[in-house]
Amino acid sequence: MRLSYRLLNVFAREGDPFSGNPLCVFEDASGLDEVGMQGLARQFNLSETTFITSRSGDGCDATVRIFTPSYEMAFAGHPTLGTAAVVADLLGLGEQVRLSMPAGVVPVSRREDTW
To answer: How far apart are CA 17 and CA 90, in angstroms?
Structure first.
C-alpha cells in the first residue's frame, strides 16, 4: 500500500529552520485501521501524526485522527492547524476549514499565511 504524506513544521519562525513543531499528515488514510495508524505514528516518532480518514461528510471538510507514538488524542493544537492547511490545499478551499475529530467539529480559519 502506497500512502501519500506531508511533513510540516508548524509554528516555525522565518529564518529559523529548527523552530516549530514537526508534523506528519497522511493525506488519505481511508484504508488504514487504528492499528495501522498507530504503527505509522510510532515509526515516524513525532510528537503527533495526523491521518485524514475522509475528505467530506457531516458538514465537515475532512475527518481527522491524531496519534502520538503511544496513543490516540481527541484533539491537539498544532496538528489541527497543520492538517487544516493540508486539507485546504488538497480540496482547494479558501480561508475556512471544518475538521471532524474525536473531540468534535473544529472550525479553523486562515488569515494570510497563518492558520
So the answer is: 24
Question: How much is the pLDDT for 33?
Answer: 97
| Interstrand relation of 62-67 and 96-101 (parallel, antiparallel or unpaired) | parallel
DSSP state letter for 60 = B
83: helix, coil or strand?
A: helix
Catalytic residues, by residue number, are 48
Q: How far apart are CA 15 and CA 13, in angstroms?
A: 6
111 grid coordinates: 488569515
Residue 40, CA distances (Å) to 20, 90, 107 in order = 21, 21, 26
Burial of 90 (0-12, 13-18, 19+ CB in 10 A): middle
pTM recorded for the entire structure: 0.93
| Each residue's pLDDT tens digit, 24-83 | 999 999 999 999 999 999 999 999 999 999 987 778 999 999 999 999 999 999 999 999
